[in-house]
Design goal:
single chain, 473 residues, mainly alpha, 17 helices, globular
Length: 473
């Protein structure tokens, strides 16, 4: 099956193809989430690099990761291959490269003082993230080219989101339970330096296997035979950014990641030093959040058929905000629920489940909105550019993460975090949990404002597709 616009409109996407596309998300999500969840902790608490320096270096790597997305996505748009289509060769290249980079990064030991260690970390993480993008940008574009149907796209992204969260569960829950066990020497296993090379091995094996499976299960995208020579990348980017609805979704995801990702970037610090959890306990919280992100996908797909996608996105943000903010406010700020009590793990898990339901909306709905935006772009340019559109989306996503990681490093330094201590001061523990939640509340109105500026609805999308078909005929 070739995935040109004509075939995707006329033929449904088979269940096996949806499963294959969904499964491929693990090869992107697992290494990416491992970096997001543990790299700052690894560099500050294990390699003992000063927090502000570590945050700055990781932010640079995330910014590099962001700017490569539209470039690599555009490369895949312009690739022509009778054997691989536009995207599949990059699934193999990215999968192999990400596996090798993971083995290198997580085996790093302190060398030549803080500066030498940081330079080594920077080189390894830049390589790993570049290879992860060579896999991820073409992979996301495949989800836009497999179908042009307004609701089928939501279904496809539901499969992708579910398996993406499976990758996140493997990254967060699996690592914390299996690789951070409590020992007599390290009651909090995440402080054991010997655990981190094992992370690299696990990530490398799973990523490589899934990338190979995805290569064979996802239908190849041979593009549109009417396409001519593509304009320069910057010209393509300017053309895409003229789309007001697409700009709106870029702003939404940038603001979301700038704020919500701080809670992830320093989440291991908070769980370790504020909530006093060990690895398996942190795994339970991760499973609660990510499990509900998976289980909520049918709900969000159903709601996206009953309401417009922008409305569903706002619903998800409100639910997620209650979970993410309610946890520290109830346990730390107001003290309504006790810390260090037998019940605290379960009350923390309850808020994590609520946050996971809201998070589920952002795992699928925005990707469907980007695919719809790419159709509007095709109407304006007569060119299929899913790779560019998804690359710009992930650029905005990762740019927000770059800001959040840098802010996380600054926050750790400002509040007095000391990586050499196994317990932090009471003031530091309090601020670790509370400052990110205050930021979330402050930015939320701007996120809602941007989401409501997305104007593509079911009727608009139907009209766009009709015009595309008329132009082709």
């Amino acid at each position: 099956m070739t995935t040109t616009p004509e075939t995707t409109t006329a033929r449904p996407v088979a269940f096996g193809q949806k499963m294959g596309y969904g499964l491929g998300a693990i090869a992107y999500a697992l290494p990416y989430q491992v970096l997001a969840s543990f790299l700052l902790f690894f560099v500050t608490a294990i390699l003992q690099v000063p927090p502000i320096l570590a945050g700055a270096v990781i932010a640079v790597s995330v910014f590099w990761d962001a700017i490569t997305d539209p470039w690599i996505g555009s490369i895949s748009d312009r690739t022509v291959s009778a054997r691989f289509g536009r995207r599949h060769q990059y699934l193999l290249l990215g999968g192999v490269g990400t596996a090798l980079g993971s083995l290198w990064l997580w085996s790093i030991q302190p060398v030549g003082g803080a500066i030498g260690t940081v330079l080594l970390v920077l080189a390894a993480v830049l390589f790993t993230k570049t290879m992860n993008t060579f896999y991820g940008a073409p992979y996301y574009a495949l989800g836009g080219s497999m179908s042009s149907d307004y609701d089928v796209r939501s279904s496809l992204q539901g499969y992708r989101a579910a398996f993406h969260v499976v990758g996140m569960i493997l990254a967060i829950v699996g690592i914390q339970i299996l690789l951070f066990p409590s020992t007599a020497e390290f009651p909090r296993g995440q402080l054991n330096p010997a655990a981190y090379p094992k992370i690299g091995i696990a990530v490398a094996v799973i990523t490589l296997v899934i990338a190979i499976i995805a290569y064979f299960m996802i239908p190849k995208d041979y593009g549109d035979s009417t396409e001519g020579k593509a304009p320069r990348l910057w010209t393509q980017i300017k053309g895409a950014l003229k789309n007001k609805s697409f700009r709106a979704i870029l702003i939404v995801i940038f603001l979301i990641e700038t704020t919500f990702q701080i809670t992830i970037a320093i989440g291991t610090h908070v769980n370790t030093f504020t909530y006093h959890l060990n690895g398996p306990q942190m795994g339970i919280l991760g499973l609660a959040l990510l499990g509900m992100s998976v289980l909520s996908q049918p709900l969000w797909v159903f709601l996206s058929k009953r309401f417009e996608k922008r409305t569903v996105l706002v619903m998800g943000m409100v639910v997620g905000l209650i979970g993410f903010v309610g946890m520290p406010w109830a346990h730390v700020w107001f003290g309504w629920l006790p810390l260090d009590a037998p019940s605290s793990l379960w009350t923390l898990a309850a808020f994590s489940m609520l946050a996971g339901i809201g998070n589920g909306a952002f795992m699928s709905i925005p990707f469907s909105m980007v695919a719809d935006s790419a159709d509007s772009g095709q109407l304006a340019t007569d060119r299929r550019q899913e790779g560019l559109y998804f690359g710009l989306y992930t650029f905005s996503y990762k740019l927000g993460i770059a800001f959040s990681v840098f802010l996380g490093g600054v926050l750790l330094d400002v509040i007095g975090f000391n990586g050499a201590l196994t317990e932090q001061t009471a003031a530091t523990s309090f601020q670790l949990a509370m400052v990110p939640s205050w930021l979330l509340v402050a930015i939320s109105p701007f996120i809602v404002w941007a989401a409501l500026r997305y104007r593509i609805d079911r009727a608009t999308q139907s009209d766009v597709l009709a015009q595309i078909r008329a132009k082709k005929s």
